[in-house]
Amino acid sequence: EAGVAQSPRYKIIEKRQSVAFWCNPISGHATLYWYQQILGQGPKLLIQFQNNGVVDDSQLPKDRFSAERLKGVDSTLKIQPAKLEDSAVYLCASSLEGTSTDTQYFGPGTRLTVL
Amino acid sequence: GDSVTQMEGPVTLSEEAFLTINCTYTATGYPSLFWYVQYPGEGLQLLLKATKADDKGSNKGFEATYRKETTSFHLEKGSVQVSDSAVYFCALSFPNDYKLSFGAGTTVTVRA
User: Fold this and answer.
1) Residues on chain B touching A47 (C-beta within 8 angstroms)
2) A13, A88, B1, B99: most buried by Cβ count inside 10 Å?
3) Which of A39, A82, A77, A34 is nearest to A59 (CA)?
């Protein structure tokens, strides 16, 4: 079974530029998550989708971050404009149903460096 | 708010040593508790979980018991191998708030 795919794996940009990350979840998984992991910290949820609807985006900085999940499958996360403090690893995860005991499967992440 | 506190690392051990990583949580109610592991160059993966008090999760020789009275979920392994070198994350979630709240992670290095 193919895992969660993410691209690109690495991205370096200058502040105020835009960047987009892509995620393809495990086939059949209804729930998709985007996490931000700053160096030395645990991952923090940015947004959760159930199919193509948003369940929780309370920690997404909406003035600069946006995310969509068209057709309930792939998802993109965008940052515009980027700030230095956005340097982090962006993790995508998916789960079958999105319940609290459901296992979340993580992709390899995209490491973003903002200069 | 809800939070997870993990033992600070890094932790360096010799092969066959006993490993304990402490994890305590602060939460109202009764969360589900998880340990995730990140091996070098790989994504996060679930190691074990427990969904109610006194449950014991186990996998790959690792164990953790959900202790409600001490709000803890310490990870243990009796005899570590070099292949156990990784970053370990404790996490929790609630039934009506499905997001995972993670601790900061503990880096473990096992030397031959």
Assistant:
1) none
2) B99
3) A34
